[in-house]
Amino acid sequence: MPHTSAAPRIGTPAPRPRPGSHRFSSVINRIAEEMNTLDDHGTPADYIPMLADADPRRFGMAVAEPDGTVYGVGDWRQPFSTQSISKVFALALALSLDGEQLWRGVGREPSGNPFNSLVQLEYENGIPRNPFINAGALVVTDRLQVLTGDAAGQVRDLLRTESGNAAIDFVPQVAASEAAFGDRNAALAHFMASYGNITLPVPALLAAYFRQCSIEASCADLALAAGFLARGGVRADGAALLSRSQAKQVNAVMLTCGTYDAAGEFAYRVGLPGKSGVGGGIIAIVPGVCTLCVWSPGLDKRGNSVAGVSALDRFTTLTGLSVF
After folding, report:
1. Residue 322 neighbours by CB under 8 Å, 6+ apart
2. Is the whole-model pTM more than 0.90?
3. Is residue 13 over pLDDT 50?
């Protein structure tokens, strides 16, 4: 029987009990039981050797409420490789510092192509379609590195602060594994540099990008850390990371572009802003209500967690919560 438990944000007083607290516990327990019966859990990302041996049947799910209460089921406290989920936090930081100027180098449209495709860049003069495909994420990391001097460190520190977990960190072996198989990303970066859309030397940019993607965090950590997107850009301590309009922008791009070339199917099935990573995690936002993170390392052919998408589909079906 799946077990659900709750915990306050680390380092803050426990929230007072209130009506409706833990109202999704029975729902996520039911979902965890259903995920155990899936016929096909997909296949872990075999092109990143450090991720290839993960058990595709593992499953965790966490829900965080706007007041910082977090609870979950299964492997919800197990750290995993965030991979492209980190792109959401890099985008938020870059947008908070650079504002609308950021969008001069990256678009906001779905790509319709695989996340590491080179095809569109040539037709569109080195401007990637959106910040969540690899080319777009490289542009965001480049800009954040220029603005802060340590893009990956800024992303890690944001995750630590918002989750209350100071143990969140990089996994150097994962970064090295990605670098060893990073020729496609290098090609993307060099191509954009030829159009003047990359500022850093490509090797330095790739090192920052791979480091950022190597961050490990749990479902609990990520559900809490993404809470500012459910609170209209407001951080856990009440300070504004983003304006309400900017938070809306990030959520909109997550909805239309957050699951690679399966974004339409994800919107159809789940109906929430979401961002997946090839480590098997997906975060999703119910504005004003809660944030969710699911993890199961078995992926479909488009790089999204099979059980993760199914679990979020069931969540919105059972609760009636979506942006539509």
Report:
1. 270, 271, 272, 286, 316
2. yes
3. no
